[in-house]
Amino acid sequence: DWTMAEFRAAKIAEIREQVGKGRVICGLSGGVDSAVAAVLIHEAIGEQLTCVFVDHGLMRAGEADQVVSLFRNHYNIPLAHVACETLFLEGLKGVTDPEAKRKFIGKTFIDVFEAEAKKIGGAEFLAQGTLYPDVIESVSFTGGPSVTIKSHHNVGGLPERMNMKLVEPLRELFKDEVRDLGRELGLSEAFVGRHPFPGPGLAIRIPGEVTKERCDILRKADAIYLDEIRNAGLYDAIWQAFAVLLPVKTVGVMGDGRTYDSVCGLRAVTSTDGMTADVYPFDAGFLTRVATRIVNEVKGINRVVYDYTSKPPGTIEWE
Ligand code: XMP
User: Fold this and answer.
1) CA 124, 126, 131, 134 torsion: positive or negative?
2) With the C-alpha atoms ordered 274, 63, 56, 131, is the resulting torsion angle positive or negative?
3) Where, in this chain's numbering, is ATP bound (predicted)?
4) Which residue has the higher pLDDT, 82 or 31?
5) 227 annotated as a binding-site residue
6) In the chain, what are the domains?
7) What's the predicted TM-score (pTM) here?
8) Is 128 near ligand 1, meaning CB less than 6 Å away?
């Protein structure tokens, strides 16, 4: 039986052995996995690590600032904050197919990393917070035939031209173990307990075309939903909760006027590893309160629906 303290020590030795005197860049997504990977690698090799936060403009409200301050101020780990919203949004113009979105975002991440690696005089290694379920799900569906459900942008290796080796210290771990490791490394409970957030960000929570305007609408609705979940003391009982902005307009009435605006979907699930999930059974009063707030406070949304699909057959994200 491994304790997390032993796992930490063993991984640190392994990272030192793999990396030697080489330079490593690590992509931060704002999530727990990449943060834990970065802190662990920093402990192993210190200044040989540079973190890159690719701010693709597809983050939730306030998230970019939280990541930057956690790393720069709290950990004092060198961090390149690359603001590249335009690059991502331009490239996503007209893209509606979920796999095409994922592939574009994955490829563009790599392009940005490559440019950052050049700036620090080249890096031999790329670190990622890939978990065991990411590895499994991008290869085959558990227990079923070998089909790709979704191409996770952080799995599947690197383009040949990149010529970098991967450092993936969390590849054998499940999410709850990564959280334990994070605690072991001294990350705050609030950070470690954060809900998972996918690398492609809000792009896969906006079925249809992704635009700056739609990202802004979704950010507002999502913030209200999460705010109500926190106020109700439900955040830690839920594996993941988020809003989705649908490419469907419906008719409504507000005041004495007709509205014709987008539908917002709400999702909340319980899970232990993200591979299967159950719908979180909010009471009707809670959902009504959230729906009312979203429609009243977010311009562009006039109807809210709740997703009652478990995984399988649904996936947690909508794309
Ligand atoms: P699905 O939607 O496949 O998601 O049921 C399972 C878990 O994985 C997260 N997810 C991702 N995480 N890159 C990530 O880092 C991705 O491309 C990606 N796609 C899904 C999802 O949020 C859920 O926690």
Assistant:
1) negative
2) negative
3) 29-35
4) 82
5) no
6) 4-192 (3.40.50.620), 211-306 (3.30.300.10)
7) 0.89
8) no
